[in-house]
Design brief:
alpha+beta, 7 helices, globular
């Protein structure tokens, strides 16, 4: 995972320690006591590569630094690969799942698309099915929220490291796009009411946002730009029903771990003592479109 100096439009507003020197000193000081942590400097002076034992290990460090008034950004977690006998190998996990019988099909389908291999399967008393898999570690990233949704919170999932195996190929771990703020300002009910029809919102009214900030999840695979700061034009014309109170669906409040699992490779999590925000690496919509065009062309 990369720890990056915060360069968003809201940088420096909430944190006390925001410079690359502050972050570098804090990370290298952590390695003196946290022996499972490894910190490497990169080609960029504002970016540090931090390796640890899983997402939980790194998220604890992020939360600790946040409470110590540090402000920074982190990238999506990536698994550590190795080259063994000339072959690229990746870490595997031994996964044990117990779910009610009615949810077995949905779980098997999702894990199958994530390159999971079925090892053992059996039934328990009370209509519960016990399933064992071997799955690439990167296939589990972002799966826990889907697992809870697919099983309505009735499933139990546990996994442990189970060695390295040759690379299993590409895995599509996220099928949702992002709802991205169109402009900088404060979110208002009128704009949010229109945006909630496009997907699931992560913010409520009166929240400061900036262009390129992720404000929700889209059910479609592509990203959608929404204007959550849009205000209703005031006119003298009145119509029956047009001025009724707008009802917003309560937003989904994302924890730090959920944000790390949600973001894609072109997104970052902005961490400050007061807020956790998700954003695009490239904030401008025009520049993102140009980048996508260049990637397709190449």
């Amino acid at each position: 995972m990369n720890f990056i100096v915060n360069n968003s439009p809201f940088a420096g507003r909430e944190g006390k320690y925001v410079t690359s020197r502050n972050i570098r000193d804090r990370l290298f000081k952590e390695t003196e006591t946290n022996i499972a942590l490894r910190v490497e400097e990169t080609d960029s002076a504002d970016t540090f590569k931090v390796s640890g034992r899983g997402e939980l290990h790194l998220s604890i460090l992020i939360e600790t630094m946040r409470r110590q008034n540090f402000e920074f950004q982190v990238s999506r977690p990536e698994v550590i690969t190795k080259t063994i006998d000339g072959k690229l190998c990746e870490p595997m996990e031994y996964l044990i799942v117990e779910v009610p019988d009615s949810y077995v099909g949905a779980v098997m389908e999702k894990l199958g698309s994530r390159k999971a291999e079925l090892i053992n399967m059996g039934t328990r008393d009370g209509g519960v099915t016990h399933i064992e898999f071997r799955i690439p570690a990167r296939g589990l990233m972002g799966y826990r929220p889907e697992f809870l949704t697919d099983t309505n919170g009735n499933g139990i999932m546990n996994h442990v490291f189970d060695g390295y195996e040759p690379f299993k190929g590409e895995i599509v771990t996220r099928h949702q796009g992002s709802l991205i703020a169109f402009e900088t300002g404060d979110s208002v009910t009128y704009g949010l009411y229109a945006a909630q029809e496009r997907g699931r919102l992560f913010i409520g009214a009166g929240v400061p946002v900036y262009e390129g900030m992720i404000v929700g999840a889209s059910p479609k695979s592509e990203d959608i730009t929404v204007n959550v700061c849009k205000k209703k034009h005031i006119t003298n014309t009145r119509a029956s029903g047009s001025d009724d109170a707008l009802k917003l669906t309560p937003p989904t409040v994302m924890s730090l771990e959920q944000c790390l699992e949600f973001i894609a490779d072109d997104e970052l999590v902005e961490v400050t003592p007061e807020n956790i925000r998700m954003r695009k690496r490239i904030l401008s919509k025009e520049q993102r479109m140009k980048q996508q065009f260049r990637n397709k062309k190449s």
